[in-house]
Design a protein that fits this description.
Elements: H1 3-28, H2 34-115
Helix pairs in contact: 1-2
Keywords: Membrane, Transmembrane, Transmembrane helix
InterPro entries: Desiccation-related_membrane, YtxH
Protein name: Gas vesicle protein
């Protein structure tokens, strides 16, 4: 996961934890019967759990999509670079072979001239 994804997940977890703590404290100090307060806390905790699952699913889907996009882009770029390198290699290989043959002929001519 990218650094941005980790930051987003951390911020999301912090916000949910803060919201849960605020709701619980508010309910505990409300002038209601303990049984009713516990019921409200339980319901709110379930709501927060559902919200967290939904947000996790959304964030997870976004991360998967971003990974897929980055992966595709990387594969396309790597393929393009490989083709460019191969084309350059083929082009210059023929030139080098030709130049090498010319140098070999020149050396052979010089050697033959020295032997005379």
């Amino acid at each position: 996961m990218s650094k941005n994804g980790k930051n987003t997940a951390g911020i999301l977890a912090g916000l949910l934890a803060g919201a849960a703590a605020g709701v619980i404290l508010g309910m505990l100090y409300a002038p209601e019967e303990g049984k009713e307060t516990r019921k409200k806390i339980k319901n709110k905790a379930e709501d927060l759990k559902d919200q967290a699952k939904n947000k996790y699913g959304e964030v997870s889907e976004k991360v998967k999509d971003q990974y897929s996009n980055i992966s595709s882009t990387f594969k396309e770029t790597a393929s393009s670079v490989a083709h460019t390198v191969k084309d350059g290699y083929d082009k210059y290989k023929d030139q080098i072979v030709s130049k090498t043959a010319d140098v070999v002929k020149d050396v052979e001519t010089e050697l033959n001239d020295l032997k005379k």
